[in-house]
Amino acid sequence: MHHKITGYDIGALLYCPANAHTSIVEALKNEQIPHPFSLAFCLEDTVHESAVAQAEQILHHTLTQIQHAKQECHFYLPLIFIRIRSPKHLYQLAVQYKTFSDIVAGFILPKFFIENCDAYISVIQHLQQQDCPYMYIPIFESSTMVDLKSRYIHLSLVKEKLNAISDKILNIRIGGNDFSNVFGLRRHTQNTIYDLKPVANLLVDISTTFSPDYVVSGPVWEYYAGDGWDSGLKRELELDLLSGLIGKTVIHPKQIPIVNEMLKVSQTDYDDAYNILHWDISSGTLVSASHDAHRMNEYLTHYRWANKIMRLAQIYGIK
Questions:
Q1: Alpha helices in the chain (DSSP H)
Q2: Whole-prediction pTM value?
Q3: What percentage of the chain reaches a pLDDT higher than 70?
Q4: pLDDT beyond 50 at 2
Q5: Nearest alpha-carbon partner for 271 in 239, 246, 237, 297
Q6: How far apart are the two ends of the chain, measured CA to CA in Å?
Q7: Which residues contact residue 169 at a Cβ distance below 8 angstroms, ignoring those fewer than 6 apart?
Q8: Distance separating alpha carbons of residues 261 and 42, to the nearest angstrom
Q9: CA triplet 18, 19, 22: central angle to 5 degrees?
Q10: How far is the C-alpha of 195 from the C-alpha of 207, rounded, in Å?
Q11: Cα(82)–Cα(115) distance, rounded to whole angstroms?
């Protein structure tokens, strides 16, 4: 399987309907997609229920081709995930696609929340017993999360339940468009998701609950052409990072370089993080102020931040 992957490795996660992208194998082999990136084959909301069986066959063929290509020549192979439809569907495909476990990193679990998390967790534990090496990505996008009266209780409860399989949860994603839809809202290129306050509050609540223990990523940006699509994406990524959200669901390869550029760390942050992690704790807490930002660094206060910065620098580089 892959080297020890973490939620930071996912970065820009490119969505493909499992039945539509016939050219994806060639695009991978010829490295036509900017990298690093991750790839999600979707069997859920981009595929009509009546077309699922056919989409699964097409995906099986695509994965077979990727597997063969990987044996024949060297090319950048992204982390590959499959977005399934339900806990039952997860079990069925995880078993059916076990032969692809060298190229499929795991599964994306849609509409994950209080109403189905027990069923998902039970399937994941079952698959663990069968030595299935997958990792899992729950998506928080269920409209039941909107209700304020139960939101905090349910978020805490889901977090508690996830403890049973926390080592198998690679990343947590947020369905910004699903939440926007509940309120009948949509952002334009000059706005960010954080301008839609009822949605922004949901994002922040999810980040507050999960980002101390998991990597939580930002919602999809709908624009990839037209005026201001790129500057809008940069603005939103900046706010994502300030809210503790790392990475982004993307719908077009043009969005990937912008995500990767925003995930790079500044030289100042890198230097500070390096100093914090190499600090001799016995000699006190204060590390020298940064030559640029003139800020105080303390090991106990900043080591989690420093770990994150070093990991991002390893994967995405320094600006």
A1: 24-29, 52-72, 87-96, 117-129, 148-162, 176-182, 197-210, 229-242, 256-263, 267-277, 299-316
A2: 0.94
A3: 94
A4: no
A5: 297
A6: 31
A7: 135, 136, 137, 138, 162, 214
A8: 26
A9: 100
A10: 17
A11: 21
